[in-house]
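Lab manual, section 2.4: Encoding a predicted structure.

Procedure: take the sequence of the chain (226 residues), apply the prediction step described in section 2.3, and record the output as structure tokens. A sample record is shown.
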Amino acid sequence: MDTKNIIVPERLRLSSVNPSVSEVVKASNDALREIAVAVKKVTAALDSISSVSKSVSDSVQVSASTVIQSSLTCIKDFTTTVETPAVAAEHTLYSFFLPAGTLAIDGEKLMCRFGGRQGPVANQLYVRLYLDGQTLADSDIFVAPSTWSWNIDVLVTRTSSTEALATSTFTQTFDPTAVPGTWILTGLNFSGPIEVKLTGESFGGSPGVGDVTVQHGVILKINAAT
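Recorded output:
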């Protein structure tokens, strides 16, 4: 076998001008072992990078979860069913007094969501939500020829020591068109307890028990961004 033209890396070149086949094989094996060691080092480095990346990702997820949990507080929730009576008048379905100082600084918010059912009835129906006697949400007149569900969603933001901005949406399954509302609340006293009140009303015919029913709800506080 002619080995005169075999190229060997400089650092592995043998002292002999005409190396034997066994010497060439040994040099090749040495080179392969060095390559294998280098590959292991690269693999270990990639594993380390992956581990660091996962650790950073986990840390970010935990931090985000902590921020969300620390900024959102459930003030009150309930699953009590309350019905309007067979009387054509506005009736309280749910009432809760926010503790004094619940919205202590500008930018703090309340999120309220209430849901229930109505009908079947030919009467005209109303669902309203109030904060300290001022309107937060109003369904406007709606009808329920069959038994349907409804929801009220409200976001309230304290804008000063005596004022707040509220936006609301009322929806029901019989007519899925949302009824929006925007309200400016004034003369509030955030340093004292403030009532959140939900009412229902059935009129324009012969009201029956349960024409409007609330079934559950929740009041959440969102801290102002820092």
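Check your result against the sample. Residues 10-70 form one domain.
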